[in-house]
């Protein structure tokens, strides 16, 4: 009886391990980095803007790129002010 119970536990654990490995190595599952890159690309290409209005799409794209440039300029200013270089 004890040997049968131990064998059943071993089989159950083996199935659990194999299912976990299957989930982790599934090619359909995207990594966190890939999801983040796709989300950022969608943000800067204005996928959330109204597709029927090209002016809104281009305005959103331009605004987001300008915002990114301002952010980069602020980081450069911050680093130069901390290091004391002008």
Shape: elongated
Quaternary assembly: single chain
Largest sheet: none
Return residue spans where pLDDT drops below 50 for at least 5 consecutive residues: none
Give the end-to-end Cα distance, rounded to a whole number of Å: 80 Å
Helix content: over 70%
Tell me, rounded to a whole number, the average pLDDT: 86
Strand tally: 0
Taken in chain order, the helices and strands follow as: HHH
Please work out how many helical segments DSSP would assign.
Answer: 3
Q: Compute the gyration radius: what is it?
A: 26 Å
Structural class: mainly alpha
Strand content: under 5%
How would you describe the overall organization of this protein?
The protein is mostly helical and 86 residues long. It has helices spanning 2-24, 32-44, 54-83.
């Amino acid at each position: 009886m004890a040997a049968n119970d131990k064998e059943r536990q071993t089989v159950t654990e083996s199935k659990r391990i194999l299912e976990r490995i299957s989930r982790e190595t599934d090619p359909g599952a995207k990594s966190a980095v890939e999801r983040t890159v796709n989300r950022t690309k969608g943000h800067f290409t204005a996928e959330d803007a109204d597709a029927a209005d090209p002016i809104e799409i281009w305005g959103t794209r331009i605004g987001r790129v300008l915002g990114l440039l301002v952010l980069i300029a602020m980081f450069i200013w911050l680093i130069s002010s901390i290091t004391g270089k002008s």
